[in-house]
Amino acid sequence: MDDLAAAIADPVRRDILVMLRDQRLAAGQIADRFAISRPAVSRHLRVLRESGLVRDTAVGRQRFYELDASQFAGLIEWLDQFTLEAGWQRRFDALETEVYRTRRERRRGGGADQRQENTG
Fold it and tell me: What's the confidence (pLDDT) of residue 85?
């Protein structure tokens, strides 16, 4: 997860990931979209490749890159603990458990309580 976090820490690499979200692109196409040198873009692509976030394929003299979003699963799971939604989900899960527990207890003991009320 640390390699992944380091890879997405750089804004240029994040921009590259966004570019690759919907399509694969040649290294030259990616480099053309930045004001930095091609070797600098190449280094960013290498970091993304080594982290597993992108895959590359050589087609003739061109190298095409595509996103491998499956690598985000572990990071997303870890980050989810910090979202408000995750906190609410845990609360709702706990509430659901309590509701089911209460219903079970009422079914088990409820019959005896109701008989006592009817006779008493």
Answer: 66
Do residues 16 and 51 make contact, with C-beta atoms less than 8 angstroms apart? no
Could you read off the pLDDT of 29-45 as tens digits, one per residue?
999 999 999 999 999 99
Kindly tell me if the per-residue pLDDT of 114 is higher than 60: no
Question: d(Cα 24, Cα 26) in Å, to the nearest integer?
Answer: 7
Cβ–Cβ under 8 Å, residues 54 and 45:
yes
Helix (H, G, I), strand (E, B) or coil at 26: strand
Residue 79 tokens read as 């980050």
Structure tokens at 92: 């709702």
- Who contacts 58 (Cβ-Cβ below 8 Å, separation ≥6)? 64
